[in-house]
Amino acid sequence: MAVVNLRKIGKPLLSAICVVVFAVVASSIFSYGREYRAARVDRSNAMQVVKPLQNDPVNIVPAADFFTEYRLERDRIRSERSELLRDVFKSTKSDDSRQKAQDAILKLTIDKERESEMENLIKARGFSDALVFMRDNTVSAVVKAQSLSREEVMQVADIISRVAGVSPEDITISAKP
C-alpha cells in the first residue's frame, strides 16, 4: 500500500479531491432520499402503499385491492404494538406497569377478535368485503360497495352495535368500490 504525503500533493489537488468526495456522498444521499420518498406509505389516501411502476411487463404484479392492503398494514402495526408491549411487560419491574402492559395486550387481542367477527358478519350479509376499525368508544366500517342504501347501513350498524357494544351514534359506515 502506498502512503501519500499530503504536503507534497498541494492544496489545489487536495481541495479537488475533497470536492469529488463531497459530490459522491451528496449524490448518494440524494439518490437514497428520492428512493425512500417514492416507496414510503401514503397515509393520506387510506394507507395505500405507493410504489413506482415498472415499465417492464414481465415484472408487473396485479395490485392487491384496498381491503387486502389495509388488512396487511393493520396486522403489521398491531404486531409491532404487541411486540413493544411484550417487551415492556418483560423488562418492567413495577407490578403496576406490568399490569398496564398486560391489559393493553389483552385489549389489542379482544379488539382484533371483535373486528374480525364484525367483518365476517358483514360479509355474511352479502357484502363482498368489509373493514372494521375500533378506536376507544367509536367504530368505523368500510364496506365494499358502490353505495349503501339506508337499510344496508342499518344492517351494518346493527351488527357493529351488537358485537362492539357501542351506540349507533358512535358508528361511522362508508362504502368503497
Describe the structure.
The protein is of the alpha+beta class and 177 residues long. It has two domains: 10-55, no CATH class; 66-176, Helix Hairpins (Orthogonal Bundle). The chain is elongated and about 55 Å long. The chain has helices at 6-9, 11-39, 66-91, 95-124, 150-164; strands spanning 41-42, 48-49, 130-135, 138-144, 171-176. Helix 3 (66-91) packs antiparallel against helix 4 and helix 4 runs antiparallel to helix 5 (150-164).
SSE topology:
Blueprint: H1 6-9, H2 11-39, E1 41-42, E2 48-49, H3 66-91, H4 95-124, E3 130-135, E4 138-144, H5 150-164, E5 171-176
Helix pairs in contact: 3-4, 4-5
Going by CATH, the architecture of the largest domain would be Orthogonal Bundle
- Report the CATH topology name of the largest domain: Helix Hairpins
Spatial strand arrangement across the major sheet: 3-4-5
Helix-strand topology string? HHEEHHEEHE
How can the largest sheet be summarized? 3 strands, mixed
Strands, count: 5
Question: What fraction, in percent, of the residue positions are helical?
Answer: 55-70%
Query: How many domains comprise the coordinates?
Result: 2
| The first-level CATH class name of the largest domain | Mainly Alpha
Helical/strand content category: alpha+beta
Number of helices: 5
Q: Give the integer mean of the pLDDT values.
A: 75
Residue share in β-strands? 5-15%
Rg, alpha carbons? 26 Å
Overall shape: elongated
